[in-house]
Amino acid sequence: MHRRSRPYGVPDSSSPLPYTDTKPVGAADFYAAVNATFRFILGEQGLEGLRRYWLDLGRKYFAPVTRRWSEGGLQAVAEHWRAFFAAEPGAEVEVTRGAAEVVLEVRTCPAIAYLRAHGREIVPCFCQHCHFVSAAMGEGAGIEVRVEGGNGSCTQRFALAGHFVQPQQLEDIATAS
Amino acid sequence: MIGIYDFCGHYEWTFQWLHEQGGHELVRRYWDEAIHQDSQRHADALITAKGFDGMDEYWGHTLGEEGGEWEVTRGDDVFRIDMHHCPSKGFLIRNGLKSHPDYCDHCLGWIGPLMKKAGFVVNHEHNHCGQCWWEIRRAEDATPASRPGELSGDADVRLHDDWTATGSHLDSYERATDPDDKRPPPSADEPAAGR
């Protein structure tokens, strides 16, 4: 018995995203791998090690994002997140570009929704990665982030460095379950 | 947020990050413990319970979601995949991403321990350019890997020009369940089996 499949189309070279694919959205099963990766590193290196992983990922793997944000400022931030969530299956997110902030209203976090729907045990600090990765992506571009909420829905605000009066309070980020 | 549209990119980057933290052994444990036993536990359950039917069910779903171009050949005693355009390695190639020395090893890194537990062995080759083939048989079945074209006909990836395209080099596995079970490369005057 033979069964054959065909590939999707060609990559979108005009995308604001740093890495592009031929498929329109990602394969949702990979959310389980992201969660499992966090759990593995947490078990091996503790919370400090996991935060170092997130920061390294933001600074190194996502360095092209930093460059785009550095060149394009808040407009580039807004364009990035609109394209980003359009490619995440199940995401319901509104991205608003204000005068001083880009605000992400995450009504349905695609990762948490998938993990819950498939009965996966979610790493409790899962939602902290949004802060640490985005903070690392933004630091070289003079962009800061504040995250509030989590565990399925949250608000993420991006602004030029110095705009936010208070530093990120990690207790403002919900424990995931 | 870490998304999954570019999952293969940060997955590959993570292999190298882990290697720098704890060497190859930590990367092997990541493939087994985080991917095989945690992330892909649904594959483990399907294949352990249903054997070849479970493989069909698992890869039918997951390869369909990921895209790419492949062919599955089912026999009573063998499950074969000819991967003509790997969606995962293809993503890395198109985006110029290479942090870890051999991304392709991750497949046998998590599938190998799963197959060992489920009672199967793997004949496999990958060319590091997005093409590979797999033949999975029961561990007690001593049948060797098929010759090119013997099992999957024209779909056999070994018969296609890109199998030995510029930049390709083959890693070969015979009755393997471990990512480090690579056969030594053939000497210049020794033809490689199955090529």
Task: Produce the secondary structure layout.
The complex is a heterodimer of chains A (177) and B (195).
Chain A: E1 2-4, H1 30-61, H2 63-86, E2 92-97, E3 101-108, H3 110-117, H4 128-139, E4 143-150, E5 153-160
Antiparallel strand pairs in A: 2-3, 3-5, 4-5
Chain B: H1 7-39, H2 41-50, H3 52-66, E1 69-74, E2 79-85, H4 87-95, H5 105-118, E3 120-126, E4 132-138, E5 171-176
Helix pairs in contact in B: 1-2, 1-5, 2-3, 2-5
What does this structure look like?
The complex is a heterodimer of chains A (177) and B (195). With 177 residues, chain A is α+β, with helices and mostly antiparallel strands. Helix content of chain A is 43%, strand content 19%. Chain A has a single domain (45-172), classed as 2-Layer Sandwich (Muramoyl-pentapeptide Carboxypeptidase, domain 2), CATH 3.30.1380. Chain A has 4 helices and 5 strands. In chain A, strand 2 and strand 3 (101-108) form a beta hairpin. In chain A, helix 1 runs parallel beside helix 4. Chain A is globular. The termini of chain A are far apart. By secondary structure, chain B is of the alpha+beta class. Chain B has one domain (7-176): Muramoyl-pentapeptide Carboxypeptidase, domain 2 (2-Layer Sandwich), CATH 3.30.1380. In chain B, 42% of the residues lie in helices and 17% in strands. Chain B contains 5 helices and 5 strands; from the N terminus they run H-H-H-E-E-H-H-E-E-E. Chain B has a 5-stranded antiparallel sheet with strand order 1-2-4-3-5, covered by helices on one side. In chain B, strand 3 and strand 4 form a beta hairpin. Chain B is globular, with a radius of gyration of 16 Å. Chain B starts with 6 loop residues before the first helix and ends in a 19-residue tail after the last strand. At the A-B interface, strand 1, helix 1 and helix 4 of A face helix 1, helix 3, strand 1 and helix 4 of B. Strand 1 of chain A pairs antiparallel with strand 1 of chain B, so a sheet runs across the interface.
